[in-house]
Amino acid sequence: MLTGSSRRCVLSQQVALAIVGSGGDGAVAAGEIVAIACSGVGLHVMKTEAYGPQIRGGESSCTVRLSTTPVRAQAGAVDALVVFSWDDFARFSDEIAVAGRGIVLHEEGDSAPEGLARTTIGVPFARLAKEAGAPQAKNIAALGVLSALLGLPADAIRAAVKQRFAKKKAGVVETNLRAFDSGEAFARELTVQIEPLSYTPGPAHLLMSGNEACAVAAVDAGCRFFAGYPITPSSEILHFLAEWLPRIGGSSLQTEDELAAIGAVIGASFAGVKSMTATSGPGLSLMAEMLGLASIAEIPAVIVNVQRGGPSTGIPTKSEQSDLLHALYASHGDTPRAVIACSDVADAYHATVDAFNIAEEFQVPVIVLSDQLVGQRKETIDADTLVHDVRERRLAPQHELDETYRRYAAGDDGVSPMTIPGMPGGMYQTNGLEHDERGRPSAIYGVHERMNGKRYRKMEAIARKYPLFRRYGPARARLGILCWGSAEGVVCEALDRIGDVSVAAFVPRMLAPLPAAELQKFVDACDEILIVELSFSAQFHRYLRTEIDLPRGRTHVHARSGGKPLTADEVVDAATRVLAAEEVLV
Amino acid sequence: MTCEQVFNANDYKTDLKPVWCPGCGDYGVLTSLYRALAESRCEPHETVVVSGIGCSSRLPGYVETYGFNSLHGRALPIATGVKLAAPALTVVAVGGDGDGIAIGGNHFLHAARRNVDITYLMMDNEIYGLTKGQAGPTTPAGDATKSTIYGNPDTSVDPCRLAISFGASWVGRFSGDVKGTTALIAQAIAHRGFAFLNVMSPCVTWRGDDQHKELRAKVRAVPADHDPASAESALRLCGETGHLTIGVLYDVARPTLLGEMMSIRWRAQGEAPPPTRADMLQAFAAV
Description:
- The complex is a heterodimer.
- Chain A is α/β, with parallel strands linked by helices.
- Chain A folds into four domains: 2-194, Pyruvate-ferredoxin Oxidoreductase, domain 3 (3-Layer(aba) Sandwich); 207-385, 3-Layer(aba) Sandwich (Rossmann fold), CATH 3.40.50; 398-465, no CATH class; 470-579, 3-Layer(aba) Sandwich (Rossmann fold), CATH 3.40.50.
- In chain A, the strands form four sheets. Chain A has a nine-stranded mixed beta sheet. Chain A has a seven-stranded mixed beta sheet with strand order 12-11-13-14-16-15-22, sandwiched between helices.
- Chain B is an alpha/beta fold.
- In chain B, 35% of the residues lie in helices and 15% in strands.
- Chain B is built from ten helices and eight strands.
- In chain B, strands 2-1-3-4-6-5-8-7 form an eight-stranded mixed beta sheet, sandwiched between helices.
- In chain B, helix 5 packs antiparallel against helix 8.
- The N and C termini of chain B lie far apart (49 Å).
- In chain B, 50% of the residues are buried.
- Chains A and B meet through helix 1, helix 5, strand 10, helix 7 and helix 9 of A and strand 1, strand 2, helix 2, helix 4 and helix 9 of B.
- Strand 18 of chain A pairs parallel with strand 2 of chain B, so a sheet runs across the interface.
């Protein structure tokens, strides 16, 4: 039953597991059950999923990392892997690594591929499920095995199984629980010695995805109109708001395309309601012209872009950081907009509220740049951290509205008090054409220069008010790592792993306007710079070169395609090579 | 929103001078819109005129209401957003045939099928005027234009036929004087749901003086026996060759987008007290 040389897995404060299967195997469902159960007993959880392209029945995998302390990144390698079919595993072998001392539990009789070099244990998942009276429940039997081997909270998992199948026909809960029990019993007979997860139960956490956090944030920020077109991997935002906005007096509209989605958002915002759309790369491409309209007509709009592999249709189900330049520059002309990144689920919440605040206060379109990894992974989070100041639109006071009102008369920060339809005396006709202070079309150079200046002054004001970034490590460093978005958690974990007090990191949360002064100060205080990103053409590096001075010959770049999550291992490796004076790439 | 106060057409004029050519049909439509808004007692500050891009899409700048001259083809999504956000407003979308049927054709279909509660006024000149004389979707087949030097290879479409097929609940067509246009615009504004009015608006610059004459020769009123509740009868009128039937072609009552949105809210809220933020977060709580 046991193959391989290692018989002992050292597990203690944290554990990572993965389940791989085909449609019907319930790999993802099993992962969800573990995640919800563990969040309920106060463990910190990060759950990620990966799918093949099939709508139903394709291969899927679910990875769950459990820890007694907050989790910053998905696991680089798992301690236990359940494989219902090696054929399915082959599709994910690039993405799921088993730790050196990890174990692989596979369907008995399905022979392991050569060269795996890990402890493999054949488990009769199908038979255990069948004998329990629930042939479909081999995933639950696998949970029983994992629970016993890894010391997972069995009672909480049982409760989660009950909840999941509560609405199924009579007997389903019982047979599934029996499958769980027989998995546990099977594992107890194994001779493999594993140090179980050691934890003290604590208060329950919430379990939320980044997309859900964006949607909750929108509700909290006062968004009462959402328009969107379904697109992977952002549709959960549409789903949540389609359910919740009508319950709180708002509206959610599924439009015919992304052009209409952002059009409806701009219309609703023009009419005075905080509004948002959500999409992914292909949708953002279609929205480019409307982004310019919101920018020149100075109408608040929030656009969440959940990045996936590109270009074109690319890899819809997997993450990448390659929409960066598009988010920063999309739309013709000189088009100011704000772009704010989110690094994790909590950040998705705060970035989205910030996006509404900036959009409303400065009358600009704001893009929240998320990605599939942040958007679709679930993390534990506490309700008391989901709090953020909310700001309102700068409206012209009703008593000041008379014939002297100028919709686009600029204050020092470039912002003009706005009116909304329904306000007597505040009427104006806005325009995608260049226009003067009254909103009237103008083709005159002087007007164009003046209004461009006004619109870009808002960016300076945003930069002053929202210099959002996070910085890690010492003030002076031998090595400074620059990254953004979902790379942050991985880089933080790498910093911990390197444990070198002379390595620092800087993560801008505002990508436009960039906190350039702070970033330059950081760069100037580092001997070597390492830029880390999931973009083959190194878009972040290119962008930084346009905004700040990077040291010639001392700037290294670790940039690769998405399609597989960034791991702390590769960041550690790149950093170690730079510190050892090996060039990574310049 | 309409009110008891009496308005006259001049109340809706801005001091901006139209960019249109002398003799352009759009002047007549603009005057008709001023009169129809006054007749309908639309409060200027509670009215929004939205357009796309094109000669006729310049119109919002000339109307003293809230206005939005947006992007080519995109008037309808923006108008939809305005109406859903602020249902009390009177929302009128305006534009040309190229704006509404070529680049914005998809939105025309979906605004009509949703039966969104707005008026859509299409000024149809059978040509692209602003870009100086290229064939558009309503340009007759065979016509030579700047972009179809050897004759237009495409079959033209009838905007009214499209609107009826797409599910608009009120469809009218007009070609002629300000009085008649005014009356139809006022009816369209009064309609509950998506009201589409195709107004023939001759382009003297790119279609020549003959367009006026040709239209006059073809025009005839809706026959007395036409039943505007019958899509079949309305489509038959659209299909008759040699005639351009003007008047109310189609007029039915059916659920509107605003009504559906209200009904969705009722269904979502049920009898329960309004949900709290804690209720929302409960969706993410463990067992």
